[in-house]
Amino acid sequence: MTAKLEVSGLSYSYHSMDGETQALSNISFTVDTGEFIAIVGPSGCGKSTLLSIFSGLLKPDEGEILIDGIPLPDSKVNIGYMLQKDHLFEWRSILSNAALGLEIQHKMDERHKNDLRELMNSYGLGNFENSRPSELSGGMRQRAALIRTLALEPDILLLDEPFSALDYQTRLSVCDDISTIIRGRHKTAILITHDLSEAVSVADRIIILSKRPGRIKGILPIPFSAPGLSPLERRNDPEFSGYFNEVWKILQN
To answer: Which CATH number fits domain 1-76+156-162+186-252: 3.40.710.10, 3.40.50.720, 3.40.640.10, 3.40.50.300?
Structure first.
């Protein structure tokens, strides 16, 4: 079976007046359809750079990226990118914010409008369509940002620390909600996070990067014995601490 995403020999350097800084070196891995991958590593190791390359914002110096077996520049696969901040516009209602991507891509037909309202209702924002972002909690704003992304029907979701701006209690709750939403819709997802507990709680596999330039130190499967656990249930599972310690050891070696 062809992998959903295949990365081979990827390297990237930033260039400035002061010289060249290598961010990534010889990165290779695959992601299967419907798989949830987490990428962890020290600050500055190239995690966000990797997502920028996958989204087409940056072009690698070396290596190849295949999506469904097709090179990235030629692939027609729709990629959704959810950033650290929700980037909701205060002068637009929550429904209007969620529809922004559809408007930009000229997809505001009846089917997409109905799908958008279904998403709003399904994920607890149906009664807040006319609210402004400032009237919502941080968790609700992140749900609105996810709905904006899902409305475009992406095949792959890139998540760049989407919970980092939330307080700890809200972060746990929203992480649980969003992970359940993504898995329920059978999306392929790649999460960047500094939080090892978060990675273990959501991922099927964890990719561990070294200090800059980022290289793969290890790829760790997270096969909890009990299937279908939510992130909160994983955190309370006896196997959780073992996986956490394995990731920590690889990072420290």
So the answer is: 3.40.50.300
